[in-house]
Each structure stands twice: as C-alpha cells, then as structure tokens.
C-alpha cells in the first residue's frame, strides 16, 4: 500500500570518507560489500558499495564538504564532527549479530560497543569506519 500514490524505496545513503582506500578496504574487505562504482581520483573519489544480493540498496562513500555552497566555517564544523565521530552513521542488520561482531572484531576494526541488549528492545553492536562514521549493527529476528 502506498500513501498518496508514492512508491518509494531507499536507494542510496551517503557517508563521508577521509581516506578513500581505507574506506574501500573497510566496506569491501571487512563488511563484505560489493563495489559498484569507483570514480574520481586521489581524495576526490566517489565509491558506491552495497550488500551482495541487494542491488537496489547502496552506500555512497564520498569526500566531505565538497559542495561549492558550503562555507569555510561549515567545512571546519564538518571536519570537527567527523574527527569526533558524530557526523555520519548508518544502521545495518544481521541475522547473526554475535557471529558478525566476532568476524568484524577479528579485523581490528574500531569497536565502539560489543553486542548489547538495549533497554528499548533491540540487541546491537557498534564500530567506527576509517572516517569515524558510526556503524551500528542490530540483530534481526
């Protein structure tokens, strides 16, 4: 059922990167996402990744604050928030949270929270990617 005739899906979300090679390695080699596009060069690369078997859902890893309409003050704020890990985040899901946590932890990923039963009814864990983005993973089912 759609509201007002709209039929929407989530296609792509954007997370910033500070080191495209490190971000690519994390999402491809640690999380196992497939690389769908890698354009640009140097730090000005736009990399699209996504889970295998879900071609309609992607994450665009992009250089932060490159929009010409962003002021220098805004660029500084974004850089400060990224350094603190408060700028970008995403919520993923797994049918085997504990196994997923162990596999990611074994790669020396930056662990923020081990699998925990939250008071609001979910079980989840959290990591940071190389740019400081928070990656939360919740248990499905």
Description:
The chain is an alpha/beta fold and 141 residues long. It is 23% helix and 36% strand. It has three helices and eight strands; from the N terminus they run βαβββαβαβββ. It has helices spanning 20-30, 72-84, 97-105, and strands at 12-16, 34-41, 44-50, 58-62, 89-94, 110-117, 123-128, 134-139. It is globular, with a radius of gyration of 16 Å.
Features:
36% strand; four-stranded mixed β-sheet; 141 residues; alpha/beta
What topology does this entry show?
Blueprint: E1 12-16, H1 20-30, E2 34-41, E3 44-50, E4 58-62, H2 72-84, E5 89-94, H3 97-105, E6 110-117, E7 123-128, E8 134-139
Parallel strand pairs: 1-4, 5-8
Antiparallel strand pairs: 2-3, 3-4, 6-7, 7-8
Task: Give the spatial strand order of the biggest sheet.
Answer: 1-4-3-2
Secondary-structure element string: EHEEEHEHEEE
CA radius of gyration is: 16 Å
Q: Report low-confidence residues grouped into runs of 5 or more.
A: none
Beta strand %: 35-45%
What is the straight-line distance between the termini? 24 Å
- The helix content is 10-25%
Short description:
The chain is of the alpha/beta class. Helix content is 23%, strand content 36%. The mean pLDDT is 94.
């Amino acid at each position: 059922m759609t509201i007002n005739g709209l039929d929407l899906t989530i296609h792509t979300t954007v997370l910033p990167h500070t080191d495209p090679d490190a971000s690519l390695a994390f999402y491809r080699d640690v999380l196992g996402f497939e690389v769908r596009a890698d354009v640009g060069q140097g730090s000005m690369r736009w990399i699209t990744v996504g889970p295998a078997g879900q071609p309609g859902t992607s994450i665009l890893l992009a250089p932060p604050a490159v929009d010409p309409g962003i002021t220098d003050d805004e660029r500084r704020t974004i850089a400060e928030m990224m350094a603190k890990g408060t700028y970008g985040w995403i919520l993923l899901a797994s049918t085997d949270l504990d196994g997923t946590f162990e596999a990611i932890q074994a790669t020396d990923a930056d662990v923020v929270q081990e699998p925990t039963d939250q008071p609001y009814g979910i079980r989840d864990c959290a990591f940071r990617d190389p740019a400081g983005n928070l990656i939360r993973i919740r248990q499905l089912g």
